[in-house]
Amino acid sequence: MLIYLIAAIVPAIAILLVVYAYDRHKEPPRHVWRLVLLGALVVLPIGLAERALLNAYSTSFAPSIPFLGALFTAFFVAGAVEEGGKALIFYRFVYKQKWVDEPYDHIVYAVAIGMGFALVENYLYVTSYGLTTAFVRAFTAVPAHAAFGAVMGSLFSQSRYHHAPLRWAYLIPAFLHGLYDTFAMAQGFFANLLLIAYLMWLVGFAFVRSTALRNIRYRMS
């Protein structure tokens, strides 16, 4: 079980440390690790909500069209619920806090929440499906959660400092997550190529947004 735990945790922590090191003015570690913990704790209520939605779908709608069921699972279960839980944590514990005083801070804390979620989710998958799953997810699901977090953090920053609509900080990551799960649940070689291409674009998109905020050097009040 120890090797499963290490395999599940290391990718998420490694990505978080890279994002943290990229910050020009380092955030207090206690705040960062508190957000990691909150992201980990939200896995249980999110899992219960997802199961309830899947049960409701299977009993209320005839799942005779697999494609529709896959879209429902990708966008309304995984995307909407998981990113909704992360967004609620960010809004409650980070948004408008006085110690969050630079745009890039939002990236650090949003990724911390995402990595907390990812390491628990990773552990559940690894213990169920083995170490091969840990290797695959280290290059797919974990970077994807980091990218969703970076995009969410950048949008919360825009809402706070530039009065952009707050709803986009939830809706856009949820949509991006839904697209990822749509490709991930598809079968076949072509679907795998689409997943790889989309993941590369997603990580690049998140990196560009993060870099733009990092290069704003002044502190915001």
Structure description:
The chain is an all-alpha fold and 221 residues long. The protein has one domain. Helix content is 81%, strand content 0%. It has nine helices and no strands. The longest helix has 28 residues, at 66-93.
Give a short summary of the structure.
This protein has helices at 2-21, 29-41, 43-60, 66-93, 103-129, 131-138, 141-162, 168-185, 189-214. By secondary structure, it is mainly α.
- Secondary-structure class: mainly alpha
Query: What is the C-alpha radius of gyration, as a whole number of Å?
Result: 17 Å
Number of helices: 9
Spell the H/E element sequence.
HHHHHHHHH
Estimate the mean pLDDT confidence.
Answer: 93
Secondary structure: elements and pairs:
Blueprint lengths: L1 H20 L7 H13 L1 H18 L5 H28 L9 H27 L1 H8 L2 H22 L5 H18 L3 H26 L7
Helix pairs in contact: 1-5, 1-6, 2-5, 3-4, 4-5, 4-7, 4-8, 5-6, 5-7, 7-8, 7-9, 8-9
